[in-house]
C-alpha cells in the first residue's frame, strides 16, 4: 500500500449495534477510495466487523494482540492467529493506555510484534512520551527506548504511531514543529537501527480532529494518523480521511 494510512482507534467504546452502524457509515459512500483506512475495534466486535467489511478496502485492526503465540491455557487472550482468522490486517501494539494500565514493557511488546508479523498481521507499534518527559527534554531518549523493539525484528512490515501521551484524549495537539521534529527523529532512528525500515510509515496520533487533520497530515514525515475520539464520529472521521487523500 502506498499513500497515507488513517486508523480509527475506537478504544473501549461502542456496542454491537453502534459498531455496526459506524462501520456502515464508513462503507456507505460508494464514490470513495478507502485503501489506507482502517478501524481498530474492540476485540469482541472484530469477528462481526470482519464479515461486514469483507470485500471492502477498509482494513480491520485489533487494539492489542497476545504475547502468547500458541493456542493454550491463556485465559482472556486473543492470539495473533485468531485476529488474522477474523479478518484483521493490522494489530496495534503498545498503545500508551496498554503501557500505562497493563504494564506492557518492551519484552512483552517484542513478543506481540513477532506474533503479529508471524500471523501475517501488520503491527502498529505505538510510542510516545509523557508530559513530564516532554518538559524534561528527554522525549527523544524515551521514544528511542520504545523503538528499540524494532531493532530486534524485520521492521519492513511494521508501522509506527507516534502519540505523545499528553496529547491523547486531552484536546492538546503537538505543534507542527514538534511533530515534524520527532517524526524526522523517528525515521532517522529507524534507518540507523532497524533493518528493513527504509519505507516504514510513521503515523501521528493525539487529538487529531477534522479541524487540524489537514495541517498535521501535510507535515513532512507524517504518513498518516491514528485517531481516537474523532473516529467515533463518522462525519469527523470522514473529514480526516479526506484530508489524508483517502476519499475521491
Ligand atoms: C489514540 O487513542 O490513539 C488517540 C490518538 O486518541 P485521541 O485521538 O482521542 O487523542
UniProtKB/TrEMBL annotation:
The keyword Isomerase applies. InterPro entries: Aldolase_TIM, TIM_sf, TrioseP_Isoase_bac/euk, Triosephosphate_isomerase, Triosephosphate_isomerase_AS. PROSITE patterns: TIM_1, TIM_2. GO terms for biological process: gluconeogenesis; glyceraldehyde-3-phosphate biosynthetic process; glycerol catabolic process; glycolytic process. Coiled coil: none annotated. Pfam families: TIM. Keywords: Cytoplasm, Gluconeogenesis, Glycolysis, Isomerase. Pathway: Carbohydrate biosynthesis; gluconeogenesis; Carbohydrate degradation; glycolysis; D-glyceraldehyde 3-phosphate from glycerone phosphate: step 1/1; Carbohydrate metabolism; erythritol degradation. Substrate binds at residues 9-11, 169, 207, 228-229. It is found in: Cytoplasm. The active site is at 95 (electrophile), 163 (proton acceptor). It catalyses: D-glyceraldehyde 3-phosphate = dihydroxyacetone phosphate. GO terms for cellular component: cytosol. Homodimer. HAMAP family: TIM_B. Belongs to the triosephosphate isomerase family. This is Triosephosphate isomerase. It comes from Chromobacterium alticapitis. The lineage of its organism: Bacteria, Pseudomonadati, Pseudomonadota, Betaproteobacteria, Neisseriales. The gene is tpiA.
Amino acid at each position: 500500500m502506498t499513500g497515507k494510512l488513517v486508523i480509527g482507534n475506537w478504544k473501549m467504546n461502542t456496542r454491537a449495534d453502534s459498531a455496526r452502524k459506524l462501520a456502515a457509515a464508513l462503507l456507505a459512500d460508494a464514490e470513495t477510495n478507502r485503501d489506507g483506512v482502517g478501524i481498530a475495534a474492540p476485540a469482541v466486535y472484530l469477528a462481526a466487523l470482519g464479515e461486514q467489511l469483507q470485500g471492502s478496502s477498509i482494513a480491520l485492526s485489533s487494539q492489542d494482540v497476545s504475547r502468547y503465540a500458541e493456542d493454550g491455557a491463556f485465559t482472556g487472550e486473543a492470539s495473533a492467529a485468531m485476529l488474522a482468522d477474523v479478518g484483521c490486517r493490522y494489530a496495534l501494539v503498545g498503545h500508551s493506555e496498554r503501557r500505562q494500565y497493563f504494564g506492557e514493557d518492551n519484552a512483552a511488546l517484542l513478543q506481540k510484534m513477532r506474533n503479529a508479523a508471524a500471523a501475517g498481521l501488520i503491527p502498529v507499534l505505538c510510542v510516545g512520551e509523557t508530559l513530564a518527559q516532554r518538559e524534561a527534554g528527554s522525549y527523544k531518549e524515551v521514544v528511542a527506548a520504545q523503538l528499540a523493539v524494532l531493532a530486534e525484528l524485520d521492521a519492513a512490515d511494521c508501522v509506527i504511531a507516534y502519540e505523545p501521551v499528553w496529547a491523547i484524549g486531552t484536546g492538546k495537539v503537538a505543534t507542527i514543529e514538534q511533530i515534524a521534529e520527532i517524526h524526522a527523529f523517528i525515521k532517522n532512528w529507524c534507518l540507523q537501527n532497524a533493518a528493513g525500515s527504509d519505507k516504514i510509515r510513521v503515523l501521528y496520533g493525539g487529538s487529531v480532529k477534522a479541524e487540524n487533520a489537514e495541517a498535521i497530515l501535510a507535515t513532512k514525515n507524517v504518513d498518516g494518523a491514528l485517531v481516537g475520539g474523532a473516529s467515533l464520529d463518522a462525519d469527523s472521521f470522514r473529514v480526516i480521511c479526506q484530508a489524508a487523500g483517502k476519499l475521491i
